[in-house]
Amino acid sequence: MQGLGDGYFVIPYTLGHYLAADKLEPVTTDHEAFAEAEDVAVGRLRKLLAVKGEKTVMQLHQELGKVMWDNVGMARDEASLTAALERIPKIRDEFWQNIRVPGTAAGVNKSLESAGRLADYLELAELIARDALQRAESCGCHFRLESQTPDGEALRDDENYSHVAAWEVTAAGTFELHKEPLAFENVKLAQRSYK
Amino acid sequence: MAKMTLNLVVWRQADANAAGRMVEYVVRDASPDMSFLEMLDVLNEDLIKRGEEPIAFDSDCREGICGSCGVVIDGVPHGPEPGTTVCQLHLRHFRDGETVAVEPWRAASFPVQKDLVVDRSALDRIMAAGGYVSFNAGGAPDGNAVPISKSKADAAFDVAACIGCGACVAACKNASAALFTAAKISHLALLPQGAAEREQRVLRMVAQHDKEGFGACSNEGECQAVCPKEISIAAIARMHREVMHATVCSR
Ligand code: FES
Questions:
Q1: Which CATH architecture has domain A54-181?
Q2: Which one of A45, B52, B104, B229 has the fewest CB atoms closer than 10 angstroms to its CB?
Q3: Do B216 and B249 meet the contact criterion of CB atoms below 8 Å apart?
Q4: Which ipTM score applies to this complex?
Q5: What is the DSSP letter of A154?
Q6: Which domains does chain B have, with CATH numbers?
Q7: Residue A141 gets which letter from DSSP?
Q8: A interface toward B at CB cutoff 8 Å?
Q9: pTM of the full predicted structure?
Q10: Are A102 and B52 inside 8 Å of each other by CB?
Q11: How far is CA A89 from CA A71, A96, A153, B54, B129, in A?
Q12: How many Å apart are CA A42 and CA A116, to the nearest integer?
């Protein structure tokens, strides 16, 4: 549910461990990368506040959540994922043309905070759906209805999907797939049991 | 169930430096099955559509486990239901047509940032002063690999239930964070994993508590009465014993 409807994720333990176990050098804000990042962030906040449209963040968040819940849940198939991929960019367009974010960028602005998170989620949602569509096998919590054993369990397809998918967003805004192959030297792949 | 109307009187304050005031709002067609925060969501949607600023309040999980939410309802932190955070408080506990006052936590150490949002980072700093074990805990150990008696485990669990919402501070006439601090100290004091840093932990956390400007405990018990996790002030007694242990017994 957190991944589907809320667009909310928890960082893995390894990151906390990395941060805790390393002595990190203090950093200041006068690096040019900081100035660049700050410009981008401020520009984005201004852009969100300037739309002054008709729909609230909550309305569009619910629309997106419903698309994800109905089409990109644990059980998904080509038809549902294709339908989601048609809807998500439309919601994203509407977001950037018709969102209404009250208030200013100074101080606490809960609507602006949520708008920023929804903007992220509108991209992430498409990525999730694209990757799920590309992977025609079932795999763990990704259950492609087309790929199941006779007793309804996840059916893997190691011949075609023994890779990690890394997606790159190109300058043109399209998604490009890079496959990182998985090589198993000691384990022989066989049908996994998720029971 | 029939829809209900609530007359809200809500604290509005533009930012930390602005003067605040109570503003009246009428919420119509609310469902008794809504949580108090969902009702505020509905009101906010309405305000945004009318071109007004929505009421700022904190929340995250909305299931009583994260400690983000918290407002004072008719003078009671988290409202009238015992053992319940405001995100889990449903409108069926209010009467149709009732007038309800909604305010932020009030304490000098929790400055209001906007409307119902207060800055609770003082609690984080108490945690950072010692509310942890500083060894590499690794993966989850096997069950019962470290023997802990059932009574100790239960007692530790009861205080570990603290979600750090700050209601104890809001309820206390001294604005003391003793219940919060004591819960965190007791949690680790009761378990073998906390033993190595037991003395320095309590002294550092209590010192930080005082430094943040929270008041001292005078055993009123207001904190345990509003604590959404129903943590007992017995934890505060344990904190005092831990201080004694660290300053007298272990020297
Ligand atoms: S929102 Fe998490 S406890 Fe209320």
A1: Up-down Bundle (1.20)
A2: B52
A3: no
A4: 0.86
A5: B
A6: 4-114 (3.10.20.30), 120-135+149-249 (1.10.1060.10)
A7: T
A8: 17, 21, 56, 58-59, 100, 102-103, 107-111
A9: 0.89
A10: yes
A11: 15, 11, 32, 28, 47
A12: 11
